[in-house]
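Box S2. Input/output pair 1.
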Amino acid sequence: MLQAIARDLAKLGQRVEELNTRQEQMAGANANLAQLQAMAPDLAKLGQRLEEFNTRQEQMAGANAKAIEQLTASQDQLVENIKAIQQLEKTQEQVARDNAKTAEQIKAGRDQIARFLAARASEQNPQPRTSAPRPHPFAAPPR
């Protein structure tokens, strides 16, 4: 019977040690829990700031997308303007060529009119023909 009591006491001692170990673990867990509870408000603030950051990031992404859209539209308009300017330059060059050709045609027309008028004037006012000089009827000088 003493041996049984000794065995029971030994088991009881082991059990006490296990309980002490668990109590220490619980104390450590309680300390960890206390630290976590102390950190909870900071974690909540951090979570809130992350939400605000995400909201701002989404707003910036939307603003960036809109800016890119506007930039693309501006670039497209710029390309169209460049094409229009190039077409205007081609048109100006053609107008300059046409003007030069018209000026040449006007000059040729004026020259033709001038020749025509000169020919007509010479037909209406014939040039006196030069022939031998006519004798002048006058008295011979006294001798």
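Box S3. Input/output pair 2.
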Amino acid sequence: MFSAFFINRARFAMVISLVIIIAGVIAIQVLPVAQFPDIVPPQVSVQARYPGANAEVVVETVAAPIEAEVNGVDNMLYMPSTSDNNGSYRLDITFALGTDPDIAAVNVQNRVALATPTLPVDVTQQGVSVRKQSTNMLLMLNLISPNGTFDRLFLSNYMEINIRDALAHIPGVGEASQFGQLDYAMRIWLNPQVMTALGVSEAEVVDAIRRQNLQAAVGRLGAPPGNEGRAFTYSLQAQGRLTEVSEFEDILVRSNPDGSNIRLGDVARIELGAQTYDADPGALGRASSAGEQRRRGAGTGTAAVALDPAGDGVRLCGTADPGPRHRRRHRDGAARPSRPLTRRTGRGATGLHHQRQQ
């Protein structure tokens, strides 16, 4: 028999076994992460926003229709949701191990599409996002201004424009997001006393802004078929959306019969600020913008980060979860990283972590 050959040649069998062991030890170092078993259930996140609504209104008008449709989606385990007083809504659907996250996201998207017609118009205009995600946080970064040169609004927009996309493109990173993201917005503070005296309502102000702050396609001159005898065609351009405070102040709210005009600057104070101030991602008492990275999926290794952000006056510092392989126990029983997670460079910080190659 075949086994008798190795039984009669014990030394040869021992050499073959050692070769197999050595080959296995070498192969495990380059084994793709995707071949490891999934230990974290896949998760799909649904997010929406209802501007101006409190938590109770969000629950009744947004959460109830969406959850009624999503409930019972294939392989779903549970789905906790959060409704905040700032009008935001988040639903996290957790699926059973082994479920394809792409298929799960498509199934959830189809269920959300059934609930979309019953949502308020303001919610559908903002958009309802459906994304697959991992529950494992990979790295947290803080973009700070040590000298106080820049405020939170500038730092948040700098991270959104210049850093977040770069982090999201790193192999192994599934999602990069900000905590308390601050987007630039034109804030209009209405004066109720002046509006009452002039007889101006909020609906008039909103309607005037919508009619006069738009991007219009005005067409062309001399385009066929009505271009007989004309050698040129002219594409017309009109002023697009307003961008300056002075332009918003000139918005015409009402023209009175006596020839006088009421403009937006007469009934409101206008400033360029943040869209929302509900979150304060401050670090160490200083203005900062905090962001996080998440793994692309269960079992995926951690990505290395190397950034040189804004230069003078801005510093990027980060902390990461080192994982069980990079922790060591001490006499007091506390676990801490076995090596520093960040390293100072000339103008920024570099977050270091091991990553297996796909």
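Caption for Box S3: The mean pLDDT is 76. DSSP finds ten helices and 19 strands in the chain.
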